[in-house]
Amino acid sequence: MAIVTNHKLETLGGEPAQLADYEGKVLLVVNTASKCGLTPQYEELQALYEKYKDQGLVVLGFPSNQFGAQEPGSSDEIEGFCKVNYGVSFPLFAKTDVNGANAHPLFRQLTAAAPFQGFDDSDKGRRFASMFSPEQLESDDVKWNFTKFLIARDGSIVGRFEPSVQPLDIAPAIEKLL
């Protein structure tokens, strides 16, 4: 299933954008947060972006305050935090709901096309799994900050990587698409 590229977006700076702006690129779409135990993943996301951007990778960050209210800041605060602490230069977008009635259509499409397959068997993955009820684990909703969706140049959704997967561990899958 190819992703619909006419999704309207808003940059963190308030400018209009759309997913079509990135057609022909390999995309790593990530819901992010600045006050999460996983926030250091920004460093690896930036490293992936720097390493592969000239080959066509774009990391797209979507701050979300839906998980433990871990993204409470304004757009300016989020941008400053990301640049100062992690040198983030990949595109960041306005705060976005990724689940529920107000979920952005992009995330509705991503979760439908790349359903939740469970957490990995690492210690971190097992800790994540223990945070959720069986009913929550049956849902395809985004479970937490730093869920990552990989999209090929043709718009096909290649994979979903849960928060327990470190961004650099996705590098082999990215390289296959470049």
TrEMBL record:
Belongs to the glutathione peroxidase family. GO terms for molecular function: peroxidase activity. The keyword Oxidoreductase applies. The active site is at 36. CDD domains: GSH_Peroxidase. This is Glutathione peroxidase. Gene3D superfamilies: Glutaredoxin. Keywords: Oxidoreductase, Peroxidase.
